[in-house]
Design goal:
heterodimer, A: 200 residues, alpha/beta, Rossmann fold, six-stranded mixed β-sheet, 5 helices, 6 strands, B: 634 residues, alpha+beta, Beta-Lactamase, 3 domains, five-stranded antiparallel β-sheet, 24 helices, globular, disordered N terminus, disordered C terminus, binds guanosine-5'-diphosphate, binds magnesium ion
């Protein structure tokens, strides 16, 4: 039966580019990767994902419950394709204890803050520490300052973002889900940093 | 118009006469006849014997419409305890009652009906000096449900809440059609006049008096008010008595204490105490669904713990639940309802859900809006209808579930209030969604596979398109009530093949045309006790506006509360007539029927029609209920 529990659990054999679609042989050209977005509620995680996956921006806020799952495949210049399986988490306090559920086994973590909110920047640093303690040891982390279009209300400087990222060995970028600025770049940069499977 | 003459064309209108029903065993005629409550009942003080027999009967004299006022007064005096106490308690508050009437008028329903309402005004304007018998009933109730005015709490509350008057804002916003999700009036606090005038407040607060949730206004601005409520609760609790109900003028203040969490409703909607208490229970359940009961531990560590951040973003879940108290009968029936579907279609859906349940899914539920298409539980697991209501409310009110598939921790308070389950939620279209519940936090990819498989089967067997068709066609309509009583194979008369011809030789022709079904039947709800499911007829004229629907549900709710007040006997019936409706309620071990008729409907015909409704429901039960889901037994 198609979903008997004896089937290999995809979530355990997961990630870091070792799995290809539909249970076929691992394929160096087709990488599948589990990515989790973390950050305070309201910083724009869902908007970033929806901009990336659907090319849309909906300004009416739809508070995420638990975590949403979306996927998107991109093609790189070396003709590799990367399929992102994205967990967009809620970020609310009640789910903090359940976050490991979503970041466990993730190859990539994108930690988002809102450049107009120092609180959200502090929260981002909390998530970075949490991931260093409990995430996969070889996890790729990106620090994202979102809502870059609101530069007139900026309260977290680019420099602070860069410093925090460097200190923690992260890749840093500022984005705007609203204007689509740097959204694709974010995911392309992540894709470039993925380890390529060496198995044939 | 004399109702006696309207029924003269049939020889069976007298309940005590011959019984035309093919199911003599459970005929409602028998019920009413055996209680010997003929039309002009003169037992002004029903004996306890009758009450113990489970007979609950509010008779209205059947006479000319011109003397409504008198009749209704009579009927109030006749009613036995369960009914009388509500009316009598109000009689001590005649001024408040009149305010309520103004309110109804100003909220502007149908003008004509409002005038009639004003004139007859049976529900509110009960004559002042209550008879010795009725005050006795009131006292009985007072001792069981509330510490009443004796504690001197009334005054405290009255200071805080002013009389609610015409709240035209709420009248508009409360209608289902114009309801917008989310919290309103956040700018208000307990100093605002508008806030004080709201007809129904709900609060959640902690035992230390910290606000957790408020229906209106910003919780943080209501800290002082919360502290007052907390003071009232602890004052009474220290006295060894648990406060449940306080009456202050026309307001009822209902308290529910759940460990460190207090829930309070302040209402001047005239809903029975039991209903308001049930609503508080549901609000508490909704909170548990989001957080589990382990949130209590936070209060053990820190009594001053602030819970509001934990509920961040869930205002919309609570406001949608509170809104459903006025349109969703599941909130007081404690039963769920199914989307009408051909038996084979529901079977096809059930079969694939069963496959999935066998692979380690605890519950697989396919729903369309708040109606169940099919649902299956793993062996021995059973899902309480209240849990389903709360789960569906949670999913439907949280927009993010529509955006993409998701996997969220949720708790089913009746299943296990201490533990999270994990819910995979996916919308197949704007109305239809699948929920797969599991105990395993790792099961997402498995559940996703299950959903893909389910989706394939649903598409192949046209389930999704049939669901859409059913949505368009609607459910049972009173106009389609079959007029003959021959048993028929269960087909769903959507196309009106059973519709009453206008030139019918039957007895219903003298009723006003174009309103409702035969014998002035306007609406019904049938609840199967064994299945924990109910079916409700579609609303049709004259119960067409959301406001009228809400009023009818309130009337049903009141009926439900009075029927369930002291445990259900094997058979109970209730017949009420007021200026809005004739309401008929019939409770047996197998089902409960609530029916609303034209206020001028003939009683005997109404009773007969109720039997027909029951027969009709049985005829089409394959299509309106989810039957025989094997592991799904309560
Ligand atoms: N100006 C601006 N607003 C944004 C941007 N991204 C998100 N928002 C807004 O921020 C709010 C929260 O976004 P959402 O994606 O739901 O946040 P999440 O809780 O992190 O998922 C919404 O009202 C969005 O419209 C952005 O790049 N620029
Ligand atoms: Mg979100």
């Amino acid at each position: 039966m198609g979903c008997s529990s004896s089937l290999p659990d995809r979530s355990s054999g997961r990630l870091v580019g070792t799995n290809s679609e539909n249970g076929g042989a691992p394929d160096a050209k087709n990488i599948r990767v589990k990515l989790v977005l973390l950050g305070d509620s309201g910083v724009g995680k869902s908007c970033i994902v929806l901009r990336f996956v659907r090319g849309q921006f909906d300004p009416t806020s739809k508070v995420t419950v638990g975590a949403s799952f979306l996927s998107q495949t991109i093609a790189l210049q070396d003709s590799t394709t990367v399929k992102f399986e994205i967990w967009d988490t809620a970020g609310q306090e009640r789910y903090a204890a359940l976050a490991p559920l979503y970041y466990r086994g993730a190859a990539v973590a994108v930690v988002v803050y809102d450049i107009t909110s120092p609180d959200s920047f502090a929260k981002a640093q909390y998530w970075v520490k949490e991931l260093q303690k409990h995430g996969s040891p070889d996890i790729i982390m990106a620090l994202v300052g979102n809502k870059a279009d609101l530069h007139e209300k900026r309260e977290v400087s680019v420099q602070d973002g860069i410093e925090c990222a460097e200190k923690n060995g992260m890749f840093f970028i500022e984005t705007s889900a609203k204007t689509a600025d740097n959204i694709n770049q974010l995911f392309e940069e992540i894709a470039k940093r993925l380890p390529r499977p060496t198995t044939s | 118009m004399s109702s006696d003459s309207t029924t003269s064309s049939t020889s069976t209108d007298d309940p005590a006469n011959g019984n035309p029903d093919p199911n003599p065993n459970h005929s409602i005629e028998d019920q009413l006849a055996s209680t010997s409550l003929t039309d002009h009942g003169d037992q002004r003080t029903p004996s306890n014997q009758e009450n113990r027999n489970g007979v609950d009967y509010a008779s209205a004299s059947e006479g000319s419409a011109g003397s409504d006022q008198r009749e209704i007064e009579n009927s109030v005096e006749q009613v036995p305890a369960e009914v009388a106490e509500e009316e009598v308690r109000r009689s001590s508050d005649a001024a408040g009652g009149l305010t309520e009437v103004e309110e109804e008028l100003n909220k502007g329903g149908s003008g004509r009906r409002s005038v009639v309402w004003m004139r007859t005004n049976s529900e509110v304007e009960v004559d002042g000096p209550s008879s010795p018998s009725s005050s006795g009933y009131a006292g009985e109730r007072g001792s069981s449900a509330s510490s009443g005015g004796a504690s001197g709490i009334d005054e405290v509350v009255e200071d805080e809440i002013q009389e609610a008057r015409n709240d035209s804002v709420d009248a508009v916003l409360d209608s289902q059609a114009s309801w917008v999700p989310g919290k309103r009036h956040v700018d208000e606090d307990d100093a605002s006049i508008s806030w004080r005038k709201r007809k129904k407040h709900f609060f959640i607060l902690s035992h230390s008096g910290k606000p957790i949730y408020s229906r209106y206004g910003d919780e943080h601005k209501l800290a002082g008010f919360s502290a007052t409520l907390q003071a009232i609760i602890s004052f009474v609790e220290n006295g060894g008595d648990r406060v449940k109900l306080v009456r202050a003028g026309k307001h009822q203040v209902v308290f529910l204490v759940k460990g460190p969490i207090y829930l309070v409703c302040i209402s001047c909607t005239e809903e029975p105490f039991e209903s308001l208490r049930g609503q508080l229970e549901l609000i508490y359940g909704q909170m548990i669904l989001i957080l589990t009961k382990s949130v209590n531990r936070c209060f053990e560590k820190n009594p001053k713990f602030d819970m509001t951040p934990l509920l961040g973003g869930t205002d919309v879940v609570f406001s949608s639940l509170i809104h459903s108290f006025s349109w969703n009968p599941a909130t007081f029936l404690h039963a769920y309802t199914c989307l009408p579907l051909a038996y084979a279609i529901r079977q096809a859906a059930g079969a694939v859900l069963q496959d999935v349940a066998d692979s380690g899914v605890l519950f697989a539920i396919l729903m369309c809006k708040h109606k169940v298409v099919s649902l299956v539980g793993a062996q021995k697991a059973s899902l309480h209808p209240d849990d389903m209501l709360l789960l569906a409310n949670f999913v439907m009110s949280s927009e993010s579930f529509r955006t993409s598939e998701s996997f969220s921790p949720i708790c089913l308070p009746r299943y296990n209030p201490m533990a999270f389950l994990y819910a995979y939620v996916h919308y197949f279209d704007v109305d239809t969604y699948l929920m797969l519940l599991t105990t395993s936090s790792d099961a997402f990819y498995h559940l996703k596979d299950c959903r893909i498989r389910i989706e394939m089967v649903l598409l192949k067997s046209n389930v999704l398109s049939e669901i859409q068709r059913s949505l368009v066609d609607g459910g049972m309509r009173v106009e389609d009530l079959p007029i003959d009583l021959l048993p028929r194979s269960g087909t769903f008369p959507h196309l009106g093949q059973h519709r009453l011809p206008t030139d019918s030789p039957e007895t219903f022709r003298e009723l006003p045309v174009g309103v409702g079904g035969p014998a002035g039947l306007w609406h019904f709800i049938y609840r199967s006790i064994f299945l924990d499911q109910y079916v409700s007829s579609e609303f049709s004229a004259p119960i067409s506006s959301p406001k009228q629907q809400k009023r009818l549900y309130r009337a049903y709710q009141k009926l439900y509360a009075s029927m369930h007040d002291r445990g259900i006997g094997p058979h109970k019936t209730q017949f009420r007539r007021d200026e809005n409706y004739v309401l008929l309620c019939w409770v047996t071990q197998d089902f409960e029927l609530y029916a609303a008729f034209d206020p001028l409907a003939d009683k005997a015909l109404a009773i007969k029609t109720c039997n027909r409704v029951c027969q009709w429901v049985k005829d089409v039960e394959n299509e309106i209920f989810l039957l025989g889901a094997s592991p799904f037994s309560w």
